[in-house]
Design brief:
This protein is mostly helical and about 300 residues long. It folds into three domains: about 120 residues, DnaJ domain (Helix Hairpins), CATH 1.10.287.110; about 80 residues, no CATH class; about 60 residues. Helix content is about 70%, strand content about 0%. The protein is elongated. Bound molecules: 2-acetamido-2-deoxy-beta-D-glucopyranose (NAG). Pfam families: DnaJ. Its main location: endoplasmic reticulum.
Length: about 300
């Protein structure tokens, strides 16, 4: 059921995620440097040797003792290298990364998992992802809406409607000779009003966004449950006659009419259709055959 726009949105988000994951791969672990070199130890040094060396170097480069910016940089680098090598797990991952420099993607993913894994709440990641997705969705909706609007504005029907509305407002008097500036303003106001009446191009709504829907899911589900429960109680248990609204809903469903089309049907037609009780199978069958006969007669 995914529309091309939704697929485009997903593809774009996926591409962005891959881009974000690959780009910083240049600066994982100790950047261009070797973490062991930075600490002045060999690759098979044990934990206490690494610790000792780190304390020595951090004293040497400490900003309090060395005001020169180069040593401040080194101080940060050494601290970072120590963060990686003091932990057996991240050290093993780092060793693996040096042994297998070709596995860029894997190493980067592992680095970020170790680096951010304990800091970032997975729920925050989910919320972030939902926000990004919803943002794309919203922008996409507005683009499509504006495109539809532009198209509608070019049709003669729209132009005629606008002119008619203008005449109606000015009381039938054509005010061509009046102030042009004011004319333009009135024109804009009227076209804004007409925009709202365009069918088929639904104005983008915040309520349809993935993120919002997910947050509202418990509410939506309970509302749906309540609705079904009420329906069952009223019409199946108490056998009450359908209210006009519910009968109208049933009619729309049995005709398979889209919500838009049904809303735009005039009341007389709706009334007639509702009276026929099309949700009863035999009524639907006779209605269909009647329609068939009618169309044959017309031809
Ligand atoms: C680490 O290595 C040093 C020097 O080789 C040695 O003196 C020390 O006992 C070792 N420490 C541990 C915990 O293995």
């Amino acid at each position: 059921m995914a529309s091309p726009a939704v697929i485009r949105c997903y593809a774009f988000t996926f591409a962005l995620s891959v881009f974000l994951l690959i780009t910083p791969s240049i600066s994982i672990y100790c950047d261009e440097d070797d973490c062991y070199d930075l600490l002045g130890v060999s690759q098979n040094a044990n934990t206490s040797e690494i610790k000792k060396s780190y304390y020595k170097l951090s004293l040497k480069y400490h900003p309090d003792k060395n005001p020169d910016p180069e040593s401040k940089k080194l101080f940060v680098k050494v601290a970072n290298a120590y963060e990686i090598l003091k932990d057996d797990e991240t050290r093993a991952q780092y060793d693996y990364a040096i042994e297998h420099p070709e596995e860029v993607f894997y190493n980067t993913a592992r680095y970020y998992k170790a680096y951010y894994g304990h800091k970032t709440d997975p729920r925050a990641v989910l919320v972030g992802l939902l926000l990004i997705l919803s943002g794309f969705q919203y922008v996409n909706q507005w683009t499509r809406y504006n495109q539809a609007l532009e198209m509608v504005k070019k049709t003669p029907a729209y132009k005629n409607k606008l002119r008619a509305l203008e005449l109606e407002r000015s009381g039938g008097v054509s005010n061509k000779k009046k102030n042009n500036k004011m004319d333009k303003k009135v024109h804009e106001d009227l076209s804004k009003e007409l925009d709202l009446q365009i069918n088929g191009a639904e104005k983008p709504s915040v309520w349809g966004l993935i993120g919002v829907r997910l947050v509202l899911l418990p509410y939506t589900l309970s509302k749906l449950l309540l609705w079904h429960g009420c329906w069952f109680w009223r019409y199946k248990v108490k056998k009450a006659p359908y209210s006009w609204e519910d009968a109208s809903y049933l009619t729309k469903q049995s005709l398979g009419a889209p919500a838009d089309a049904w809303r735009n049907t005039d009341d007389a037609t709706k009334d007639d259709l509702v009276q026929r009780q099309l949700w009863v199978k035999s009524n639907m069958e006779s209605y269909v055959s009647e329609m068939r006969r009618e169309s044959k007669r017309r031809r």
